[in-house]
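User: Some background: our group keeps a shared notebook of sequences we're curious about, and every so often someone picks one and asks for a predicted structure to add to the entry. Today it's my turn. The entry only has the sequence so far, pasted here. Could you supply the structure so I can complete it?
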Amino acid sequence: MTKVSAPEKPMEEWADDVKPIFLIQGLLDSFGPGSKDTTNCTYCQEHGETTVAVAWCSVCDDALCEKCYGAHNRIPLFRHHDVTDLSGEVKVKGKRKAMCKEHQQESLEFLCQDCKKAVCQKCCILYHRKCDAVVTITSQMVTMKTDLTEMKKSLTKKEGESKLRVKKQKLQEQRERDHYSLMKSHIHSACQKVIDRAKKKERKLLDRMEDISHKHIGQLKADIKTGEMSVLMYQHQTELIDQALQSECDMDVYEMYQGCEAGDVEAVGDADLKERGRIASVTLRQDTDKLSKALDDLPLGEIEVLYESVLDLKATPVLQDTIDVTVADDRSKPMSSDVTVLVVNDTDTVVATDYSNTSVKSFYVKNNQTQHSKLSLSGGPWGLTKLTHNRVAVTVPSREQIVTVKVKPDLELLKTITTSKQYVGITSLTPSTLAAGSHSPPCVDILDMTGNVLRSISPLQKGNNILQYPDFFSTTRTGNILVSDCGTKGVMCLTPEGDVVFSYRPTGDTAHECPQGITSTDTGDILVTDFRQHRVIHLTESGQFVQNLLTSKDCIQNPRGLCIDERGWLRVCLNEGVIQTFSCK
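Assistant: Of course. Here's the predicted structure to add to the notebook entry:
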């Protein structure tokens, strides 16, 4: 953001206030003014002479020999130009005197901190008389260099974090490539099994058809052979009758007649035609519709895509899992007040506070077995927030402490921070700052990681503090602080500077009785639990009621803390000591 010095003036007079971005400045440095050859004098070359340059004027963008350099310095307008000495082995840049664009004979020696602008002495007199903070630029050098050094450290740190993130993403890319190759192999394998079984069934059907066809065709061949024999027999007997009829002997006619009367002329094989079990016909019956449906329903597998942090608040929530936070050595019935989920070594790890048993617990699945870890504390923990991918911070109000815990996924105590107040709710604003809520006095404090209070926020409305019991916190996607306050029966959103973005205290059917856990989605929507009304409420980013997302009909009883994990699953702490997991996709 650039604060324009004189927006009422024509744009060309204040446009130079806008600084070039690093990329453009780099291009200017590489290819713009000052990027030319500095070996020979520019002016002498224009007159056909070659003389060695001893200086470079970055304003004129010219190389100067000794003679031209002297002439350059004798011109009053050029006297304060930025000139670099080129005579030595190392090019040492001379101390630059930046000149005022409006008063070209005056150098910029002052800094108006109100206008955030470098000015000359005349500008101070003419335009900045009413400004409160006008100092010399030299007096601010230590501060500016310190700030630049810190900025450099921050950028170096971010560079390292970005490199680490890119490295992890490359590893993840390779893992996903291997994973996709494995899934392809599984699909091919499943399909091959189906093909093998189909071929086996095809072979069985063909073998059956071959047996039947062999038998049927064999029967037909036997029938043909028998028929052919009958034809020959009939022909032979016909010839015998002809011979008898042509005989002169009456006895030949009589004997033939007697033979025919006795049935001797019946063809051989007529009895075989009456054989039982003969194949009349063979057909192939195929139900193509049934086959098509069977192929459509073939369970080769389904591709399930898990999107990061996708929570469809228009979908019906479905209960996926219930975690009982009771472990073997608990002395009391657990009371889980807050919950978060971390992914450690590719393992989803649910971390929850247990106020009754003064401990923090983690739950995860390893080797297909549900396992847990328990870290005992000096007092009952309440608020919980994720600091990094494997670290959380926990408030211990009774001991005036905030503890940091490493999740491996087993829990390891890292640091105990002593605070000046009994903080209850907590959320992480940046890797180095926290926001925490206190009852006495009712406030929201911005803390560093040593417990020092950087800012205390006690927002007023009509002269009264609008905070009472800020017990649950969350950070929005824009960096603001969501506060759930069961004392005022409302929800509010604050900026880290203390401004009230909105304050939500509904009446009627949508009124809160005891708001508790609060979180926000990637889309900015807000979810808040109501302990006494047994529900999870959905609000817009600006704090307007949308719906009751979960109620007692969804087995929600006395909900406290809640969070949305990287899968986009909603985790809700119930006072009875269980954590329920819902999907809304």
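Suggested note for the entry: Residues 148-272+291-296 form one domain. The longest helix spans residues 141-246.
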